[in-house]
Amino acid sequence: MFRNLTPVVKNLLLINVGIFFIATYFIPQLQAMFALYYIESRLFMPFQFLTYMFMHAGIWHLFSNMFGLFIFGPLLEQFLGPKKILTLWMICGIGSGVLYSGYTAFQMHQLDNKIESFYNNPDPEIFNQFVSDNNYMFKSSIYDFIDKFSRAPENESYIQQAKDNMQAVRENKSNIPMVGASGALFGILIAFGMLFPNTQLFLLFPPMPIKAKYLVLFYGLYTVYNVIVNNPTDNVAHFAHLSGLIIGAILVTFWKKNRTSFY
């Protein structure tokens, strides 16, 4: 099985696995330093658009990404060549990070508008709605405070406490990192589906055959669904997955049109 590994795929597997074990067991500071943060976070550095791809949240996160590369990568490398598959991997990975950062900036802008709304009109109902929208970031005791604040809406101490809570939520959200090669992997996935649409794949869960184009379609629709639902307790960066799909599709479409360099 491993004899069929192509050079770029093999090196990407070795690099990702090697960096994971180094960051997990030898230099844990790398995980925080190389993850991708919101661009206005004090932890953000431009090189993170590249390095976040080589960080993973755990062994299962690493395995799922590397298994996908292991399954779909070799045939793509044989067809596209080593230079193009590496280009695909890197552009989809870095591009996903850039687009995800833009998406995060949009979300943070919405959050800032809600905070500004409260600052302009420190109404307990506005704060209550803010807590409701971000309840996963508060302890249950916050509702006791909301009750007190509602009974004394002019209390300056309560107003300041509400502001402090809102700023704490903003600080926490701005410092949530993104890690993983999923954006790059989804670029590989869409490329495989576009170039080998009728290739039969056999799923492990559930154990059944499926054509590559239908598998890609399922992943695409599932990703779009999760982006739309936007469950705040879901720690998966679905928008980065969607970005990888879109960038990969654009890149493969460009290569297919430019026949002189595609083959």
From TrEMBL:
Biological process according to GO: proteolysis
Recorded family membership: Belongs to the peptidase S54 family.
Pfam families: Rhomboid
Gene3D superfamilies: Rhomboid-like
SUPFAM superfamilies in alphabetical order: Rhomboid-like (SSF144091)
Protein name, as recorded: Rhomboid family intramembrane serine protease
Membrane topology: Multi-pass membrane protein
An example molecular function term from Gene Ontology annotations: peptidase activity
PANTHER family documented for this protein: PRESENILIN-ASSOCIATED RHOMBOID-LIKE PROTEIN, MITOCHONDRIAL, RHOMBOID PROTEASE
Keywords for this protein: Hydrolase, Membrane, Protease, Transmembrane, Transmembrane helix
Keyword Cell wall biogenesis/degradation found: no
Spans through the membrane: 12-39, 51-73, 85-103, 184-205, 212-229, 235-255
Primary location: membrane
Localization terms from the record: Membrane
Ranges of residues in domain Peptidase S54 rhomboid: 47-104, 168-253
